């Protein structure tokens, strides 16, 4: 909460005095009454029920918030479950803020940030992020548009809420593999060590269940020095195993006070539950998430780490399929790519390669037989070019596998729907159609590079991105923020509340210009009748305002 309400300089705190050992003398504020200067904002809704806040506007446009502790709750009582922390300002400004340790733990000691004495940062003009810095979710606006939703800008703060010598951080990786996992681990360890002087960092072996079922792994810069050159995760990973009570018990018993959780939407949902339990117990533990999904299906953020690497590697498979297809008469190269619910990898790899004749994704329904169907299009392309390349995301066309509908309700340990191999199924359907019905000889080659893509190290672009995500998470945790995910919004690192990351999924909008670019590149049909197109456009009309990254508004 300091970055929302605290002035930018120490001199504004009459109750704080610097001393020679770089620690700020902490003089406890009365928990029943505290005043903070607040600029610009007209309404503040904390929603934590820890304090009741009243905003009083003065004629000088400077405001004061009077915060009084609820008389019905003692300092030892368990806090209530928090609601979203919202700040409203003029011009339709909305800040969806992240929780802070001071929201539920009173009288926390504050320390000077050691970065101000770090030689590596001596050339930086501005050491610390300004307390008022926020990042808009939407940057394409009209002149009369409201300012809209903002997120707190990530970065180092002038005051931190952990003494470096007292920090015991832990890192855990959950879910499937993704390029860049080891880079994130490395940069969290090195960031804590080199920027904040933290010497105690533990790795949790084997995902969430490693908290209570396995021993920890000691991590330091020497241990993690070269791991970014390897794929996978040195900590191991798993799906499921989330037992909130056991996990928080382990955190408490081991004396851990910073938890860095790397994983997808299911993992971040678990991280949110862990944060809630930690807060309920009143523990001084920061919980920070780093979003990981190779499918790029996490909302709000520009992209997830590993996505660029996945698209780059997918092109190699597409290139191989193209070589195979054009080398044989009526050759068909079929490539299955990742994309359980979202077809971003398939779409971007198709656009980048320029060799693909048809791309099928979960968001765009298609059918096989009849006028305008897939079989008709394949036959036309073979007659025109003598070969074709077909890319299909793993989640596409699942509704067509009628003989396997009973499996549609089954889920894995992470809660993901178990999918049938649609590419293998559609390969056989294509062979049967042309050999039995069309009496036409084809040569189909099926390539599945899924696990090859997941297991490779991240490329240069993703390595840099992983560094920014990891360091931003470290800065946020040291500053006392908790219950947040570090993510890129409009090219700026931000702190995003867990609920925004887990409330929905990022999907390709097939009435958007990016999908139109793909259709123009492949010349494939939309597989939609005119009535369906009009219905989709009508459904998207109210939400087709572009966000920061070209995605459409979820509202």
UniProtKB/TrEMBL annotation:
InterPro entries: ATP_PFK (IPR022953), PFKA (IPR050929), Phosphofructokinase_dom (IPR000023), PKF_sf (IPR035966), PyroP-dep_PFK_TP0108 (IPR012004)
Binding site for ATP: 176, 239-240, 264-267
Ribosomal protein keyword on record: no
Keywords: Allosteric enzyme, ATP-binding, Cytoplasm, Glycolysis, Kinase, Magnesium, Metal-binding, Nucleotide-binding, Transferase
GO BP, one annotated term: fructose 6-phosphate metabolic process
Keyword Hydrolase: no
GO molecular function: 6-phosphofructokinase activity; ATP binding; metal ion binding
Name of the protein in question: ATP-dependent 6-phosphofructokinase
Protein's organism: Gossypium hirsutum
């Amino acid at each position: 909460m300091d970055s929302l309400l605290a002035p930018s300089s120490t001199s504004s705190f009459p109750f704080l005095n610097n001393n020679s050992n770089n620690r700020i003398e902490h003089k406890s504020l009365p928990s029943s009454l505290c005043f903070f200067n607040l600029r610009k904002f007209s309404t503040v809704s904390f929603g934590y029920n820890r304090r009741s806040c009243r905003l009083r506007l003065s004629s000088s446009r400077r405001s004061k918030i009077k915060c009084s502790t609820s008389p019905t709750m003692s300092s030892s009582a368990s806090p209530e479950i928090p609601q979203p922390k919202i700040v409203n300002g003029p011009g339709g400004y909305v800040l969806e803020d992240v929780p802070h340790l001071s929201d539920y733990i009173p009288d926390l000691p504050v320390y000077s940030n050691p970065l101000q004495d770090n030689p590596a940062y001596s050339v930086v003009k501005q050491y610390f992020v300004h307390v008022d810095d926020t990042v808009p979710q939407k940057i394409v606006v009209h002149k009369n548009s409201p300012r809209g939703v903002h997120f707190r800008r990530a970065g180092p703060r002038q005051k931190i809420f952990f003494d470096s010598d007292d920090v015991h951080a832990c890192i855990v990786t959950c879910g499937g593999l993704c390029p860049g996992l080891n880079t994130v681990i490395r940069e969290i360890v090195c960031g804590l060590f080199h920027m904040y002087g933290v010497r105690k960092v533990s790795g949790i072996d084997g995902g969430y269940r490693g908290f209570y079922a396995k021993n920890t792994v000691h991590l330091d810069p020497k241990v993690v020095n070269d791991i970014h050159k390897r794929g996978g995760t040195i900590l191991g990973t798993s799906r499921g195993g989330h037992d909130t009570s056991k996990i928080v018990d382990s955190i408490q018993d081991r004396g851990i006070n910073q938890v860095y959780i790397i994983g997808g939407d299911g993992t971040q949902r678990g991280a949110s539950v862990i944060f809630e339990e930690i807060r309920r117990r009143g523990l001084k533990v920061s919980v920070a998430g780093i979003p990981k999904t190779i499918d790029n299906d996490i909302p709000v953020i520009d992209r997830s780490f590993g996505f660029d690497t996945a698209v780059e590697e997918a092109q190699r498979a597409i290139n191989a399929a193209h070589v195979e297809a054009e080398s044989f008469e009526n050759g068909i190269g079929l490539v299955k790519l990742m994309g359980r619910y979202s077809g971003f990898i398939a779409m971007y790899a198709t656009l980048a390669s320029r060799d693909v004749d048809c791309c099928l994704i979960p968001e765009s329904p298609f059918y096989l037989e009849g006028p305008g169907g897939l079989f008709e299009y394949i036959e036309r392309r073979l007659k025109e070019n003598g070969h074709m390349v077909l890319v299909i995301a793993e989640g596409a066309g699942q509704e067509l596998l009628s003989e396997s509908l009973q499996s549609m309700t089954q889920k894995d340990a992470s809660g993901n729907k178990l999918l049938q191999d649609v590419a293998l199924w559609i390969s056989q359907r294509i062979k049967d159609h042309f050999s039995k019905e069309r009496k036409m000889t084809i040569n189909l080659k099926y390539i599945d590079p899924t696990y090859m893509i997941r297991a490779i190290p991240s490329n240069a672009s993703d390595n840099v991105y992983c560094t920014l995500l990891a360091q931003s998470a470290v800065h946020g945790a040291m500053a006392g923020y908790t219950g947040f995910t570090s993510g890129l919004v409009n090219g700026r690192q931000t702190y995003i509340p867990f609920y925004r990351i887990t409330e929905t999924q990022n999907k390709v909008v097939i009435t958007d210009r990016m999908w139109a670019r793909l259709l123009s590149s492949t010349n494939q049909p939309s597989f939609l009748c005119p009535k369906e197109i009009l219905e989709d456009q009508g459904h998207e009309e109210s939400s087709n305002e572009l966000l920061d990254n070209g995605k459409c508004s979820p509202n």
